[in-house]
Amino acid sequence: MKARNGNTYRMALQKTLFKPGINREGTDYSNEGGWFDVNLVRFRKGLPEKFGGWVKNNLNTFLGTCRALHSWVSLGGTKFLGLGTTWKYYIEEGSTLNDITPIRLVTSAGDVTFAKVGNGDATITVADTAHGAVQNDFVTFSGAASLGGNITDTVLNQEYQIATIVNANSYTIEAKDTSGDPVLAAAGDSGNGGGSTVGTYQINVGLDVYVPGTGWGLNGWGEGAFGSVTALSPNNQLRLWTHDNFGENLIINVRGGGIYQWTENNGVGTRAVNMSGISGANLVPTVGLQVITSEIDRHLIVLGADPINDAGSARTGAVDPMLIAFSDQENNLDFEPTITNTAGSLRLSSGSSIIGSVKSRQEVLVWTDTALYSMQFVGPPFTFSVNLINEGSGLVGPKAAVTATSAVYWMGYNNFYAYNGSVQTLPCSVHNYVFSDINLTQSFKVNAFTIADKNEVGWFYCSASSSEVDRYVIYNYAEQTWVYGQLSRTAWLDAGIENYPRAVSSGYLYQQEIGFDNDGQPMTNVFIESSDFDVSDGEQFTFIRRIIPDFKFIQNNNENGSVNIVVKTRNFPGDSLTTNSTSAIQENTQQAYVRGRARQMVLRFESDDDAANNGNLGIGWRLGATRIDIRTDGRR
Asked: Please, what sign has the CA dihedral across residues 297, 400, 24, 622?
């Protein structure tokens, strides 16, 4: 830079403190002085900070993809965690996962027979007339006799997952020993298992993909005639569970399917049972879209329940997507409306289907695909009132709303919203980044979450090129900042009953926000990158030669631990960025000498993924005000 007398002088160190939050609504250059790209970094008190890490809760795995978590405590102080997956429902007590998946059918003795497919083959054909099973269903056999060779009674009398559906009266399984290893049939396996075999079938499994309508792609090849259309049902749709407590007991519901109760007094060795079949049940809905309890007044609410028939004698068995049914107060088994109880039903009018619901202060919020309703207890004779709060702010998926300390937050089809007495559209500095790269066909996989001690709400979702959750976006409601990144978590439960948030991925339950590592391994691809900046609006080239970092190492359990500072440059906004230098910064680093010359520059702070000895293992950091030794350097 030149002074008025024509002499060139060097600029002093320049303190650089970028605006908090990520802004992708403009261009790299128009957001000068801000942050433009990020992964696994949050903002706290206006400063970037590495995400908290995660560790497996234990080494026990569950079957299927878990998309629902619910925790509660019994009167005796026992902690429970419910996990609903595409194939099963579990309750965790201590470190043990207990399968409480409801039973659909128990056959009579002798209804089930077996036949080997061939010698040296583990495939067994199971005959059971009108079995009602679908591929991947689970069935447990008992009372079976040996087929005469390797397929012994011990091999047969255990739980199996159905491999293929042959037809309505038969299917195949793969014979295994009690350790799960294949058992191959031999020449002596000529029997059929005897005349005492009983098959105990769990409820049909669901899909791991959302099917937006009827028609192609619902079933496997060969199921149904050519050109036929198959109606959607719980077993050929994305499996989503909802769950809530009624006292110590757990109420669970498969979206579009049955409603079940697990009774705490019976213990985790027992399964959930269909509520309509419990002694004393009176017109309990047989299907629904979601279950939720109204805690203050103690009603069980079923959203999308099947209505009572015209005779008033039974439920129809078909989901009414806009009907809300609720039980008598303090009695979750009595849904028959009478003048002496508070059971009843309501039907919503705005929209075509109820999507989801959460509990808030003194009310239950219910979303349809186009509107938001408030449901409040008012007492007899109406029990509940339902008020339309807002139209045009529907919910993108059943799990896309969450209650935080400040408000209720949710994701719609093209906006984020908050409700605290009135609906507000959240200003979002990453709006285009999220909604231009989201797979809305799989929007029912969106799951909202909170991290209360960080003042954060967020959403996991599928990017446009993915059919499974692979992205997140987070809003800090105290500081009104946004970040995003790449991480797959199909369900999340904030700290409360447990000290840390819990989340699930790839068959494991994780503790989140613990340490700064990826389950004992370095957390990689952690970075935050600034927008382009220049001197004198880029009239002259800028030269940078030195950086004085301002890192606070929140955790440093690694003497080799380091964080990289990367300098990138370009001359014009349309040019690609060029990496000029990468400097490893350790806790005792005073300054880093770099070289870069261009009209525009970018600073990137990232995990040192290439360092020897796992240079970013055990490292947590927070970025302060970086000082840059920078000056103008001519016009060419």
From this structure: positive
Amino acid at 350: S
- Cβ-based neighbours of 498, under 8 Å, separated by 6 or more: 71, 79, 511
Query: Rounded to an integer, what distance in angstroms lies between the CA atom of residue 141 and that of residue 124?
Result: 13
pLDDT in tens, 110-166: 999 999 999 999 999 999 999 999 999 999 999 999 999 999 999 999 999 999 999
0.90 cut: is pTM over it? yes
If residue 154 lies in a helix (H) or strand (E), which one and from where to where? helix 153-156
Extract the tokens encoding 70: 């619910």
Q: Are strands 563-570 and 47-50 parallel, antiparallel or unpaired?
A: unpaired
Q: Note whether 97 and 166 are within 8 A (CB).
A: no
Sheet harboring 290-294: ordered strands across?
290-294, 299-303, 323-326, 344-347
Strand partners, 142: 198
Q: What tokens does 258 get?
A: 């049955």
Q: Which amino acid is at 10?
A: R
pLDDT per residue as tens digits for the range 543-596: 888 999 999 988 777 777 789 999 999 998 999 999 999 999 888 899 999 888
- Please answer whether residues 81 and 502 qualify as being in contact, where contact means their C-beta atoms are separated by less than 8 angstroms: yes
Residue 593, classed as helix, strand or coil, is: strand
Q: How far is residue 429's CA from residue 480's CA, in Å, rounded to a whole number?
A: 10
Contact between 345 and 338 under an 8 Å Cβ cutoff? The reply is no
Alpha helix segments (H runs only) across 393-534: 431-435
| Rounded Cα distance, 126 and 585, in Å | 64
Q: Which two tokens stand for residue 541?
A: 């080239």
SS3 85: strand
CA 384 to chain centre: 31
Q: 51, 523 in Cβ contact below 8 A?
A: yes
**What are the backbone dihedrals phi and psi of residue 424, each rounded to the nearest 5 degrees, phi first?**
-125, 135
Which residues does residue 315 pair with via DSSP β-bridges, in sequence order? 308
| 269, 272, 276, 280 alpha-carbon torsion, rounded to 10° | 40
Kindly state the tokens that stand for 283: 């017109």
